[in-house]
């Protein structure tokens, strides 16, 4: 049977789509000209996670890193796997403008810089006329084609587009035998061509109306660097605090950039912590160890979280245990790809 699905976007806009028999919500939306943020279409990445407010549906074939049992019990769904069995109402954690108007396009760029930041992390910068004309929101990501292969890898923009040199940067973790890692460490040369497809994702900086708490795990720092760059260009009267956690000392990168942001943005502060007991860093432990009551403002706070699935779940559990209902909670899970 065919069912109607109401898609409620965070800016108050509602769009109705009709699903064909055995058609997923994501496919029906795409057929209707609506791009619900997604990446894999296989129930593996969690990018297309939305909340089903009402209705009956079937949903199989996904992995727990993309959608945990707790999230499923709370009504969250992966629209790339959700097949309605009745009319449904689905809340999409993005604005209608991002989903309805954005068109992802292939962008040809040239590699202009590779910077080995530590044993575990590097950044790379691309530039070109098409990069200069690219539009994305701070926090979104691009799919990057690994040169010499047909494989794409997703990386968050770690900067906004520099109009001075038409460039934009990315931050990636060096994964042993990883396709992109191997290319960047062993093969890449400045001047080579790079293909991007962008923008993607519903994890992006919203207009700031209240205090903001940013939580970054590892290279999940990348989208926050772009967000802070955007904030620096304007002004926020509200406090913004970032807690940046990594596993080992070598994973701590761009602390100099965070210091510059702290000096340039009046209300911005940050903490960094390292999980390893062998660390020489003064702050050890998990990110949640450094969340203070003042950061949560009794729920009058917008929380942004980007990190690996265990970190996302730990923060979710922590906030629920504290009985806090934040004004908004935006998060993105990621796992390092081979």
TrEMBL record:
A single GO molecular function term of this UniProt record: oxidoreductase activity
InterPro entries the UniProt entry points to: 2Fe-2S_ferredoxin-like_sf, 2Fe-2S_ferredoxin-type, 2Fe2S_fd_BS, 4Fe4S_Fe-S-bd, BenC-like_FAD_NAD-bd, Beta-grasp_dom_sf, Cbr1-like_FAD-bd_dom, FAD-bd_FR_type
Organism this protein belongs to: Marinobacter sp. MMG032
Coiled coil spans: none
Name of protein: Benzoate 1,2-dioxygenase electron transfer component BenC
All residue ranges annotated as the 2Fe-2S ferredoxin-type domain in the record: 3-96
Record PANTHER family: NADH OXIDOREDUCTASE HCR, PROTEIN RFBI
4Fe-4S ferredoxin-type domain residues: 30-62
Designated gene of the protein: benC
Superkingdom to which the source organism belongs: Bacteria
Name of a matching Pfam family: FAD_binding_6
Cofactor (UniProt): [2Fe-2S] cluster
Lineage: Bacteria, Pseudomonadati, Pseudomonadota, Gammaproteobacteria, Pseudomonadales
Sequence ranges assigned to domain FAD-binding FR-type in this UniProt record: 104-206
Key words of the record: Iron, Iron-sulfur, Metal-binding
UniProt-listed SUPFAM superfamilies: 2Fe-2S ferredoxin-like, Ferredoxin reductase-like, C-terminal NADP-linked domain, Riboflavin synthase domain-like
């Amino acid at each position: 049977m065919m069912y109607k699905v109401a898609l409620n976007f965070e800016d108050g806009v509602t769009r109705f789509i009709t699903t064909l028999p055995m058609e997923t919500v994501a496919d029906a939306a795409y057929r209707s000209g609506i791009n619900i943020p997604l990446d894999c279409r296989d129930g593996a990445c969690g990018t297309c996670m939305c909340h089903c407010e009402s209705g009956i549906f079937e949903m199989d074939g996904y992995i727990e890193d993309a959608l945990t049992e707790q999230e499923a019990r709370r009504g969250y769904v992966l629209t790339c796997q959700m097949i309605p069995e009745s009319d449904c109402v689905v809340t999409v954690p993005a604005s209608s403008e991002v989903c309805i108007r954005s068109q992802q396009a292939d962008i040809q760029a040239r590699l202009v810089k590779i910077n080995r930041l530590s044993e575990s992390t590097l950044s790379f910068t691309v530039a070109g006329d098409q990069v200069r004309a690219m539009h994305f929101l701070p926090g979104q990501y691009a799919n990057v084609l690994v040169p010499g292969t047909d494989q794409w890898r997703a990386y968050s923009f770690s900067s906004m587009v520099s109009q001075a040199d038409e460039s934009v940067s990315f931050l990636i973790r060096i994964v042993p035998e990883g396709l992109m890692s191997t290319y960047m460490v062993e093969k890449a040369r400045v001047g080579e061509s790079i293909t991007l497809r962008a923008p993607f994702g519903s994890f992006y900086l919203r207009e700031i109306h209240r205090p903001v708490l940013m939580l970054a795990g590892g290279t999940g720092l990348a989208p926050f660097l772009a967000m802070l760059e955007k904030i620096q260009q304007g002004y926020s009267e509200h406090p913004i605090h970032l807690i940046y956690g990594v596993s080992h000392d070598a994973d701590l990168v761009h602390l100099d950039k965070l210091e510059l942001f702290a000096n340039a943005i009046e209300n911005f502060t940050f903490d960094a912590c390292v999980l390893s007991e062998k660390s020489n860093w003064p702050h050890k432990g998990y990110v949640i160890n450094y969340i203070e009551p003042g950061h949560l403002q009794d729920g009058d706070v917008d929380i942004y979280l980007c990190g690996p699935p265990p970190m996302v779940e730990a923060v979710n559990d922590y906030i629920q245990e504290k009985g806090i209902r934040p004004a908004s909670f935006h998060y993105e899970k990621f796992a390092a790809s081979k």
